[in-house]
Amino acid sequence: MRIDETPGAAQRKEQRLSGIGVSPGIAIGPAYIGDRGALPVSESRIADSAVEAERSRFAEAVAQSAKQLRKLRARATALPGSASDEIGYVLDAHLAMLANSRLIRGVNQRISRAHINAERAIELEIEEFGKSFAAMKDPYLAARIDDIRVVGARLIRNLLKKPYVAYSSLSGGAVILAEEVTPGDTALMDPRRIGGFATEVGGSDSHTAIMARALGLPAVFGVVGLLERARTDANVVIDGSAGAVIIDPSPITIEDYRERHEAYTRERRQFGRLRRVPAVTRDGVEIRLEANLELPVELEQALANGAMGLGLVRTEFLYMNREDLPDEDEQYEFFSTLVTGMEGRPVTLRTLDVGGDKLPAALAHYAAADSANPALGLRAIRLSLQERRLLDTQLAAMLRAAALGPVRILLPMISTVDELCRTREAMQQVARRLRRRGVRLPQALPPLGAMIEVPGAALAADALAGEADFFAVGTNDLTQYTLAVDRTDEQVAYLYNPLHPAVLRLVQFAVEAAARRHIPVSVCGEIAGDPRYAALLLGLGLRELSMAPQSVPRVKRRIRSLDMVAATRRARAIMDQADPARIAALLDDFNAMAEPA
Ligand code: PEP
Ligand code: MG
Q: Is 524 marked active-site?
């Protein structure tokens, strides 16, 4: 936590902004404005025959930039008082620069006449602008060059489709303020050197949010007008629990947040004592608490927090921030570290779940990238079954790791029984091939499970339970698809509610179908890690929950204070309700009564 103590910083008026608190904890540090910096650009020559294609690539980046700005513009109207006008005015100016402006015309001419790539053409055009603006006497007009640079940086960013590698080199507890942060960007953040981050867009169960929680980085999303108010190196406080961002905090505010930070750290230390005790209800029902893993660093956290296994290993990170695909050996290396690291506790490896808000560069050429509705498109198991090379490589690495300890294989976005059958056949084929190669595999192949995260899969859970060896209920996507609410979109975040009776009924369907077929079922969506939901999930019949490693002690503490009979009764009462607000009230009321002393 580094604080800039310069007198100028202390005199500025404190600004408090609010958003969605997506990852708890407090960060205090100097701001780093993430989206504004120019990315390094190189020059390349464009052949005569490729000029048209380069101009359309540029046109696409212009269209994408305009779309992003329109979205920000629409949200700025919600700001109170004059802030709405001020920010709206700036965004309108940026949008105007993307219409048939001198900037756009100039770039197109450079592509056609100088035969250079669009990124370099933008850079040169802006340099040219800089010279003519510098000669102007009018300070107002001279300042417009900053806006042109910001628009130029946005265009270049959209052309390059590149993460902000600068995040990996930040230090000094910097607090990143950005329009948007992707899961790939987050994977590059080092929590020892970065304090936390806040963004203008993003929802609480987006993968970026999940990664922030995984890294223990405090984060606030959906902060309207954030970038318009922030300056690089301003002091910033982020309160990821309350969803607050404070720019230029007063000394009193800083002191207050330092105390809160210490209290938060103290609470986390106390949780350490729960590591060795079981997650057992007051009336003696034992619950398996396992950990979700997005990044390798979490293996240690899973063990330190007393997880009984890895209930969900998201393998996407292996594919992020690189141009090529990870091969079988590289994946095996990673899986075997997990299996041996967990020392006999089960490890649930999920096959690649890309698409929607997770699309690594190495896979951008697949159809999922161009889909009008990526969340409904060729993603997850659908992509794996179409691109068998992807699936077979993962299955081979997983089967080899299964020789070292208990492994389960989990399939994302299952919507039909056929997908399960085809994957099982693929697994058997891969196993035969490996055995022919003389590779040691376990006698019995690993259990093959289905994520229940598509409403249709939950409704057809009986049929799926006939083919699957276990279920893992993914309430993040189940909520998104049941309620038609994009989990990454802060504008509809108020509708994203796993307590909606439709979502709860689907969870109940899946749990009951699993019980009838005697197959294990867990919940591994974000609600599993929130102690608020524990009574309801247990009351619905769940005995296995998988969550971010840091959540294990909090949920365990809650379970140890619960009475299963009372929780089941309350869950029944909740399932009779139609109104999500009433459901929340019934749950909160139950939690308040059972709160440990
Ligand atoms: C889910 O959808 O609930 C889930 C656990 O998978 P992911 O968050 O990776 O989509
Ligand atoms: Mg999912």
A: yes
Contact 32, 272 (CB under 8 A): no
Query: What's the confidence (pLDDT) of residue 321?
Result: 75
Give me the pLDDT at residue 157, please: 84
Ligand 2 centroid vs 90 CA: distance in angstroms?
A: 37
Residue 3: strand, helix, or coil: coil
Q: Which residue has the tokens 């802006």?
A: 126
CA-CA-CA-CA dihedral for 413, 419, 423, 425, to nearest 10:
170
**Residue 503: Cβ-neighbour burial (10 angstroms; 0-12, 13-18, 19+):** buried
Please provide the DSSP assignment of 332-383 as one string: HHHHHHHHHHTTTS-EEEEPP--BTTB--GGGTTSGGGT-SSGGGSS-HHHH
Instruction: Give the separation between CA 485 and CA 477, rounded to whole angstroms.
Output: 9
Q: Are 218 and 27 in contact (CB under 8 A)?
A: yes
Largest CA-CA distance found in the chain, in angstroms, rounded:
81
Nearest CA to ligand 1 atom 10: 477
Contact 468, 409 (CB under 8 A): no
- Catalytic residue (choose from 94, 261, 500, 524): 524
Q: Quote the CA–CA distance of 62 and 152 in Å, as a whole number.
A: 10
Atom 6 of ligand 1 has which residue's CA nearest to it? 474
Q: In angstroms, what is the span from residue 543 Cα to ligand 2's centroid?
A: 20
User: Consecutive sets of 10 residues in the chain, 597 residues long: mean pLDDT of each?
Assistant: 48 89 94 73 90 93 88 71 69 85 92 94 89 70 74 87 65 88 79 92 83 90 90 91 95 95 87 89 97 92 95 93 88 97 98 77 63 85 94 98 98 98 98 96 96 98 98 97 92 93 98 98 97 97 96 95 96 96 96 69
Q: Of all protein residues, whose CA lies closest to atom 9 belonging to ligand 1? A: 314
Q: How far apart are CA 58 and CA 56, in angstroms?
A: 5
Query: How many whole angstroms separate alpha carbon 272 and alpha carbon 550?
Result: 10
Kindly state the DSSP code that residue 238 receives in the 8-state scheme.
Answer: E
Which atom of ligand 1 is the closest one to the Cα of 207? 8
Nearest residue to 408 (alpha-carbon basis) of 339, 484, 346, 468: 346
Q: Give the C-alpha separation, 221 to 211, whole Å.
A: 13
Q: How far apart (Å, rounded) are the C-alpha atoms in residues 506 and 494?
A: 20
* Phi, psi dihedrals of residue 198, rounded to the nearest 5°: -135, 145
Give the pLDDT score at 181.
85
pTM: 0.76
CA 480 to centroid of ligand 2, rounded, Å? 9
Radius of gyration of the chain (CA): 26
Distance 477 CA to ligand 1 centre (A): 6
Pocket of ligand 1 (CB under 6 A): 210, 312, 314, 353, 453, 474-477, 524-525
How far is residue 439 from each of residues 220, 334, 401, 436, 448, measured CA to CA in Å?
Answer: 47, 18, 11, 7, 20
The pick from 319, 358, 453, 488 for probing ligand 1's pocket by mutation, whose C-beta has the most ligand atoms within 8 angstroms, reads 453
Predicted pLDDT at 480: 96
List the residue whose alpha carbon is closest to atom 8 of ligand 1: 476
- Ligand of minimum distance to the alpha carbon of 524: 1
* Residue 418 neighbours by CB under 8 Å, 6+ apart: none
